Amino acid sequence: xxxxxxxxxITRARWFSFLAxxxxxxxxxxQTARLGRGVNAYDLRDFPxxxxxxxxxxxxxxADYTAYYLGWSELLAGSPxxxxxxxxxxxxxxxxxSPLAGKISVAHARALINLKxxxxxxxxxxxxxxxxxxxxxEALFVLGTAYELAGDxxxxxxxxxxxxxxxxVNDFSIQSQAAIEKLRLQMGANFPEASASDxxxxxxxxxEVRDYRTALAEYTALASSLPDPARDEARAGVGAAQYLSGDxxxxxxxxxxxxxxxxxxxxxxxxxxxxxxxxxxxxTEMLAAIRTLNQKYERSPWRLKALLSAANRFxxxxxxxxxxxxxxxxxxxxGDDPATAAPHWKLTWxxxxxxxxxxxxxxxxxxxxxxxxxxxxxxxxxxxRAASAAGKYGEARAWYERNSVAFPHFYYAVLxxxxxxxxxxxxxxxxxxxxxxxxxxxxxAPRDFSAVVAxxxxxxxxxxxxxxxxxxxxxxxDAELRFGARTEKxxxxxxxxxxxxxxxxxxxxxxxxxSFSSDYLSIPFESAPLSFWQMLFPLPYKDDIDRAAAxxxxxxxxxxxxxxxxxxxxxxxxxxxQALGLMQLLFPTGREVGRRQGIPVPTARTLFDPAINxxxxxxxxxxxxxxxxxxxTQTLAAYNAxxxxxxxxxxxxxxxxxxxxxxxxxxxxxxxxxxxxxxRNADMYRRLYGPNGQARAKxxxxxxxxxxxxxxxxxxxxxxxxxxxxLKAAPRKAAPLAKTTRKRSGTPQAKKKAAAGRPxx
Length: 761
Prior knowledge:
By secondary structure, the chain is mainly α. The protein has 41 helices and 2 strands.
């Protein structure tokens, strides 16, 4: 099977005809084509052409898009009266569940404001105050403008301030600031100054969006101007921004130089003081700050954060004498916080490894306290291992079976299914008492994605998206489907597949699927169509993977699982450390492996060639596997964290009875998750593409002759073909009230690759 045919087979099953809409019906009819031309003219700021093209347009399924772009074009062409007529007409019969509803309300209000009449401004206020889901802070700015035109300066000022202080990193924030200053001049002595809480809110938002340097400047100014007790938050904010901007030494000196009278702000100060000391490797000062938190602010969430952060420092150093009391304090005193699942499990795991009597009660407690946390899957597996070691095979079977059901695609559920195939467990009857105990747990209900027939709202959503695609408006179609996935009445997995099938590469499609169904690991295999899983676990470059793996004596599904975790099959991937291509090879490593394999690697760009990267990466993986004596868990840990780290962890002297015990003992969360993910991925690839998976695909009539996503794109009008599946975003309006910028991307070469269906595009 060739690479392209493989991608055909895994993405386009006949069941997807649930809409009964032929894919080739996307060819734009005259009205749909006009919509595309009108939006294109709008994007090019050719408003007279846009209005001429869109007037009288009849595309009922997407009437909201016609109204939106026509109304804006009329307004920007200098005819607010015509724009108001467009929006008034549309408002009499609006499209239900439209992603443009809030934007149309804002545009309607803008058009009314541009009539420069107080009565029209009053109408604009009514529209904005009654409309749901308005885009912010634009709506606040427009509402402020309407109030100002209506002569209500105080309400105008309130709106401008909400936009300025609540949304600091935004063009409308800048415009709101100018409007505030204008009102200051007009109101003179009657101008009310902003409250301390408003000013602090702006600085808080700057920290949240990681604009640390601007936040530092704002907090510094507020620390010298605000009255007590508001000044305490500003002073703590200075230290936080200083630390987060990279100046740990400066933050430490600053935060240690004072105390605060507001308890929660002083707790915040102590947290960042401990973090700065940790960054400076000053354990004495770090622990001193935590002791003060323990004494003064026992229940503060800042104390919990400090306890967990300091404990992690000692965990990576394997210093149990230091991390144990920190973790115990965290889960004993903040047990209702989900963040305590990690410290509770670490202490539970230490008890298990050391064979302490409390290990079984602690694992049961882990499940009772945190049933939906992934560590409950770990606890279920090792409860099964402990029961099996004690000869309690019925109990072990109960633990393993529940793990497979409650956490179907997690690493320890995979291991549980493997254990269930052992001879002593195959014949064991699940323990009744264990199952009764497990039945009392609220595991949560996974979403049901089993439907392959669209309901009416989903069908309408897809029809709208396909109309937009046919008009060449791929980005609007993308936004349409994403909006539908957030509504209660629609079926997100079907919308995800509709969008993913139009992507030019498996990488793009996989990203789409994961963004629509982030909880897919908890969805039972049988609760979603086969194509849903095949899009989440694609297998492009199958021939290259099979050949390279066979040449090295490796399991091809393990290689595929590693590639999915490393790059999600993006052949152009490049990490911050300059690891390149599908299997993330450093250039010196790739060149050295290439020399041994007789494969020239003249430049770093060579590693972006999928076939070469897979050959070199598989050879390097085999080399690493040999170094670790065939242990996949240690090999993958070294692939992610480096061989030196793994040797350090093994030198700690712990005896592991099975590879899973080593995996669970990896102190780096990222590396532990990586190893589990690769092995879990490999299992899913075997289920999908091994002998059983092929039989299942045949039973569901997966057709190799069905159009690939790339072919699907080539059936569209030329304007609709786009690299990455996108073209036109909803406009960032350039009304008389706001400045607009338009960003375009994509090269003719990239478009050519996308249209040709080349997975390497």
